[in-house]
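Researcher: Let's continue the batch. This sequence belongs to DUF4218 domain-containing protein, and it's 350 residues. Same format as the previous ones, please.
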Amino acid sequence: MRIQHDLHPHVLLNGKSPLPSSIFTMSKKEKEVFCKVLKDIKVLDGYASNISQCVSVKDQRLYSLKSHDYHILMQDLLPVALHDCMSHEVTSCMIENSNIIKVICEKVLMIEELEKMQDRVALTLCQMEKIFPPSFFTIMVHLLVHLPHEAKVGGPVFYRWIYPIERFLCNLNSYCRNKRYPEGSIAEGYLAEECMSFCSRYLEDVEMRFNRPNRNDVCMNNNLAATYLFGSYGEPLGKVEIAHLDDKSWVQAHRYVLFHHDAIEPLRTEFKEELQSRAHSRRLHQREIHKLFTETFHEWFGVGDKLAKKLNGFLKVQTEVLKDIMFFSLMGLGSTRNLEKDYRGHIIVE
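Model: Same format as before. Here are the structure tokens for DUF4218 domain-containing protein:
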């Protein structure tokens, strides 16, 4: 029957002959890990729907996914979710499929890349035939062979895919009020919206869809933004909660500020030179200097008189910058140093 030898039934001492699991079979724990990754994953706003709402970790299944959700799973999320759940043979096939789909769906297509992709698709399907049963290879799986050629003939895929039409059909479906006469109800609803849109253009000082700002357009308060050491863009999500940072997290946050503020660059350079001068017997490698710098710079930065001595040769810096530097040194003082504001999420707007 041409069944792989490792899938042949094994006769046990009790006379039973259980069938061994195939290489792509997932245990209950692996399914739980797979679903948990999809449940906790976060993507860019507008990149995909909220897939976490379509995942049940308890039941270990996916439900109510749309066609675009499946596309995002195949292109980006599936290799990440399967990384710790499946064997290397299965994971490598999924990663190769994702790479093929990414190349086909790019905004700019290169003919040379598509010709190489044609051969890669055939090799990937041959590798999958060694793993999955014949019933897995439906017409949709075989369709992958023709996608590179169609991309060469038709051009970039995003000009031709069906997702915008599906969204428009969803809007038309929302116009239906009378289920007995759906076509006429949709036509009347569409006509009513067109009339409202036309009339709204003649109204002043009224918020409408033509002048309404996008949901991620955040107007920053310049006075508030001036109080921050780093520019803050975006908008936090959810209710603010006061939490306590552990010592390790606080040190990491303090290091980040010290490593990325431009005003402290002379002090960072001075400390690196000091590290090199300490090694009298040999010259430190750049990697060793970076490691020592990362681990000890926040301690060397110092507080109080120690910091003031470091700033004696640093008086050319503006007064406001000096205030910022003094603030960095005081971050480690006081009982409230570990307090932070926590939000459920943050939308970053560039």
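Researcher: Any comment?
Model: Residues 5-134 form one domain.
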